[in-house]
Structure formats: structure tokens, C-alpha cells
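Let us work through a complete example step by step.
Step 1: write down the sequence.
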Amino acid sequence: MLQNMKGAIFDLDGVIVDTAKYHFLAWAELARELGFEFTEEDNERLKGVSRMRSLDILLEVGGLDFPEEEKIAMADKKNKLYVEFINKLDQSELLPGVKEYLTGLRERGVGIALGSASKNAMFILDKLNITDLFDAVVDGNKVSNAKPDPEVFLTGAVELKLQPEECVVFEDAEAGVEAGKAAGMKVVGIGKPEILKEADLVVAGLHELL
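Step 2: predict the structure and record it as C-alpha cells.
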């Protein structure tokens, strides 16, 4: 599967870098301002989910509801908090084996794309100093449907000028694995086998594939 792939499409959070902790801190801060606690356990429900859907889940946890206009302002506020956190990112926060694995793929002539719901993807790649390792970046600014919809990965294949079956997806979230399979691609799960049981292969991180 990995030997024959012509394209590799990577999720960002939890695969390339662990920015999930910063998302959590930003959401938790917003919840505190709204008068309730948002726990790490609650945060599990937000993995691989779009910003507005994440806000809906957070408000559900707090038993609150707001008009759409206010919700957009809240999502923007959360993003500002998050950007403050990730502003301090540097290459030291790359997950183990990431740079080596991406460099190895480039040497083999494999097309590399990012497939992430994050609207801050380019900013993060720049901070990590690995933008030049990607042939295509498909993020929340380019697609409208969140995972488990396969749009982000299908768009990645188009940008790499490849067929879906020629690509392998690297994902840490259940919704992302589902999206990859729905796109007709093989999927490498990054994380726990019991959570990512639909993936074709599960590893703890890209360092295991070196």
C-alpha cells in the first residue's frame, strides 16, 4: 500500500503537529467566559470537526444556544485565542519523524498534500518551516464540507493530479478515517487501533514508518 502510493495526503492536527492542545485551551477559555467548564473529555468530540460545528458541540455541553450572528463572533474570538497560542510555534513542535518521512516521500517522487479542516493551515506550515515539502495545501478555506465528508481528500487528489485510489490518507481522527475511506483511498491511522479500527494500517506516529 505505502510502497505503491503516488500521493500522500496528511491531516494536520495530531499527524504533523499537535496543535490540538492549543485548540482545547482556546475552547476552554471561551467556555469559561460563558460560565461553564469544558473538559478534555468533552474536547474529544471536537477532533476533525469544523470550527462552527465545534462551537455547536461546546454550546451543547454548556446547555446554551445563541443566534447565528453571535455564534460567528464567538468562533472568531476562539480563533484569535488559538492564533495567539500558535504564534509561538516552531519546528521543535513537529511530531517525531514528520520531516524525515515527508523528505523521504519527496525523494521517491510521491506527491504530498495537506488535507485539513484548519483555516490556519498555511500559517502553521510556515511557522513549522515545512511549507516547501507540500505540493498542495487543501484547508478550511478551500472546502466547505467538514470530515467525514470526503471533499477535502478528493480535492487533494485533484490538486496532486491523481486518482483517489492512487492516494493514501494519514489521519488521527475517526471522522478523518471515515472521510478517507469515503474518498476511495487507503488510510493510515495515527493513534490508537481501538479508535481507528476502520483504517487499513494504524501506527503511533510517522516515525514508525521510517
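Step 3: interpret the result. The helical segments are 20-34, 40-43, 51-62, 68-86, 98-108, 121-128, 151-159, 174-182.
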